[in-house]
Amino acid sequence: MDFIRNHLQGYGMSDTMVTYLSNIIMVLFIAAVSVIANLITKKIVLNVIAKIVRKDRHKWGAIVLEKNVLHKLSHLVPAIIIYFSAWSFPTYQILIERLAAVYMIVVTIMAVNALLNAFDEIYRSFEVSKIRPIKGYIQVMKIVLFIIGGILCVAGLIGQNPLIILSGLGALSAVLMLVFKDSILGLVAGVQLSSNDMVRVGDWIEMPNYNADGDVIDITLNTVKVMNFDKTITMIPSYALISDSFRNWRSMQMSGGRRIKRSIQIDTSSIGFCTEDMIAEFRKIHYLSDYLASRTNEIEEYNREHGINRRESPVNGRQLTNVGVFREYVTQYLRHHPGINQNMTLMVRQLAPGDNGLPLEIYAFSGDTAWAVYETVQADIFDHIFAVAPMFGLRVFQNPTGHDIVGMQDKRSGSRSNSIEAEIG
User: Which domain holds residue 423?
Assistant: First the structure.
């Protein structure tokens, strides 16, 4: 500044004009130096760092570059130059230094915020991120960062110690608790969800109170984002997963089997003892040949030992029933089905009979937990069961339909016409 003033005074200018022009020239000089320093930092220094980082086998540095962490830090260079050049303007030195310091604080906060985003993305590249998500914790760190940054900016502008401003925040604690109520509840809920491993990203959860039924795609400080199977998005408060009940299907997906639990209703009037002709036909079925051979020998030996004569009455002694043979057939059919997990529970059981007949329930697990595969396996099984039931002399119960009523009316009208013709004849 003194050099510029002495040089201008050599041209015979007045003191006022010298002061005015020297300030303008100094401002332009500082601005030019700041721009050049910023360009050197971005074009040379950052490019060199980027080349070094890209050669590293780890992708962490590339993620940091992608989040523009170093690009944001480069803005500190012109701010530092302006800060240390403030003495050139004694009248405005304090103001310039404070504004430059506040700008450096803001740049640092933005750089740290970008660094936290990069750390979150790096963490997501590991499988543990699905078990222990940290996005909620990072959001808490960002809140603390911006609060501290705001305090430092205010303290820098007014020229006070930040501790004085912090002491004044004690009176606003109640207001802060009210403003950040959801964030505090979400933080506590996030800690419990993570420590107890209650929910992960990718889990299929079901929460009827919030109409949520789908996969968890994101876990944040305040909310858990669920993509339902109809492709809609449901946002659930994090603390709701602690206070309310929900169903997590993760263990089913990890078990390797998905439960099939469905019944077929058998008309009880079609249930009866097996005749010799029926048993002869059943022996032709591969799944029943061994069963019938051992079972009939067992029954005949029992009846012979107890002197039971079944010819006198079919009720006497032990006999096979068509529903019992059918139940064994379905069991063996499931045992040989490639889509059924044979290492998990498998049974065909009778439930309590009711108005709709005798429920015959299939309880098994598919070998694939994928929804489409599961539904296909289940449909194939019951397609076969419905088709094969009449071969055992069984009728599947079904409430009368319009077709049944029309058929009954046709039979009645046909019998009436036959009786009239007979009377006329």
Answer: 256-272+321-425
